[in-house]
Specification:
The longest helix is centred in the C-terminal third of the chain and has 40 residues, at 151-190. The chain has helices at 5-19, 25-35, 40-64, 69-89, 103-112, 115-125, 130-149, 151-190. The chain is built from 8 helices and no strands. The protein has 191 residues and is mainly alpha-helical. Helix 3 (40-64) packs antiparallel against helix 7. The chain has one domain.
């Protein structure tokens, strides 16, 4: 097992930016008002299981349908690019319906373990060791759990301007990561 703290840190930062739990605080608060209590433990565990499961099974599914990880990573980099544009520009490209229940849908999926984070996991797998990505997922799920437990407090501390600033900063980081993933994996495909 090759533990690499740089890989763990980078993968954690990428996943944190893609999951964008800070930027989702307004959505979570709105859901709490509509449906009452959100089960933070259940949402976090389900999201973690989905992400780690997809990390293992996702590549096999791709192989089954004849797609290599590098091609999927290029497609994923485009999705990450558009998520970053949403964060930076404050526009909504991806539309999301809010159901009547909240703990598993939409909190665990698709807010935490959504298309962006699942695509990101396979994109990261093309570059990083599996163990480092798993540790990054677990660290992110712990952070998500803490934030889910304290959304009201976080909202009061950060305020709307603070949340907007954090969202834009992570959007720029995410945009840079998307460009790097695209360039690296397109190079792999061409070679």
């Amino acid at each position: 097992m090759n533990y690499d703290f740089k890989e763990i840190f980078t993968a954690s930062l990428v996943l944190f930016a893609v999951i964008n739990i800070i930027g989702s605080i307004p959505i979570i608060i709105s859901l709490r008002e509509k449906v009452g209590q959100i089960e933070s433990e259940k949402a976090s565990i389900v999201a973690g299981v989905i992400m780690i499961g997809f990390l293992f099974v996702g590549k096999n599914i791709l192989n089954l349908i004849g797609i290599d990880v590098n091609s999927f990573a290029v497609a994923g980099s485009l999705i990450i690019f558009f998520i970053a544009l949403e964060m930076i520009m404050g526009i909504s490209i991806y539309k999301n319906d809010v159901p009547e229940t909240a703990s598993i849908v939409p909190i665990a999926f698709p807010i935490i373990a959504g298309p962006g984070s699942l695509t990101t996991l396979l994109s990261l797998r093309a570059e990083f060791e599996l163990i480092n990505i798993m540790i990054a997922v677990i660290l992110n799920i712990i952070v998500v759990y803490i934030i889910l437990k304290s959304t009201n407090l976080m909202s009061k501390i950060l305020g709307k301007p603070g949340i907007a600033i954090i969202q834009k900063v992570f959007g720029i980081i995410l945009l840079s990561i998307a460009v790097k993933l695209f360039a690296t994996n397109v190079g792999q495909i061409i070679n």
